[in-house]
Give the backbone structure.
Amino acid sequence: MADLLRSRPDGPARFRQLLEGGGPVLLPGCYDALGARLIEQAGFDAVYMTGFGTSASLLGRPDVGLLGLSEMVDNARRIVAATDLPVIADADTGYGNQLNVIRTVQAYEQAGVAGIHIEDQVLPKRCGHMEGKEVVSQAEFSAKIAAAVEARANPDFVVIARTDARAPHGLDAALARAGAAREAGADMLFVEALVDDAELRKVASELDDMPLLFNWVEGGKTPPLTLQEIADLGFAMVIMPLSTLLAATKAMEAVLRRIKIDGTPANVVGDLPTFSAFTDTIGLPEIVELEQRFGA
C-alpha cells in the first residue's frame, strides 16, 4: 500500500512485467483514490481509472466529453498517489489534435500513470457503449497514436490505441484502424464495443500479433465472457470499469432509503464497516505513527 514517505514503484515497468506474465491482467475500475486503495487491498495487480466513473463521480453526469485534460489528470494523480499498483487511465480522445495529444501524454506521465488509452472519436466524445458515436479519419487517428508514442519520456509507458469505429463503420473498418494504429507504434489495441462472440474471435485472430484489451462493461454491448474464455481468445488485459461505481451507487441508494424512512442510520450501522475499520483502510495507523515519530 502507498505510504506517505515511501517512493512509488516504477508503474510503467511494473505493468510491462505484468503483461509478460502469461495470463490476462485484471484491472478493476476506480474513480477515486479510495477505490484504488480498495482494489489494492483486494489483491489485484493493477488499477484502471475509468473516465465514465470519473465523470459520474466528479460531475454527476454521463461520459459525454464534459471533463477536460486537467480534471482527468488531477484525478489520475490522486489515484496514483493512493496505491503502489500501476494505474492505466482513460485519456479519451487526447483532448484535441496531435499537439494536444503530446501534452496529454506528458501530463499523464508526469502524474505517474503506467499508460493510457486514446480513442478515435470526434469531440465531444461519448462512452463507447452509448449510441451516436462518430470517429475522426483513420489518418488522423494514426497520427495521434504516433504523436503519443513519440511524446512519452519513459519507453515503458503504455500507449493503448482504442478505436470506436465498429459502431459507425463496421468491424472491418475497426480492424483496419487497429492495424494502422499498430503501424503507428501503439503498444496495445482496443477495439471497442464488439457485439458478439464471432466479432471477438475475429479481432483476436486478425490482431493476434499484438496485446489486446477486453472491455468488460457491465451491461454493455460486448458479451460477458468468463475469464477463461477471455484468456483462450488471447486478450492480454481486462478492464472492468463500472463494477465499483455501480456497487457503490446501489449501496448508497439503499442506505439513504433506510435513513429517509427511519430518520437515523441506526438500522443500517450493523451492515457498514466500523469507523475504526474504515480509518484503518484509509491509512490512519500510518498517520499516527508519523505523528509520533515527528512530534506533529
In short: The two ends are 23 Å apart (CA to CA). The longest strand covers residues 25-30. The chain is about 50% helix and 10% strand. Strands lie at 25-30, 47-49, 87-90, 115-119, 158-163, 188-191, 213-215, 237-240.
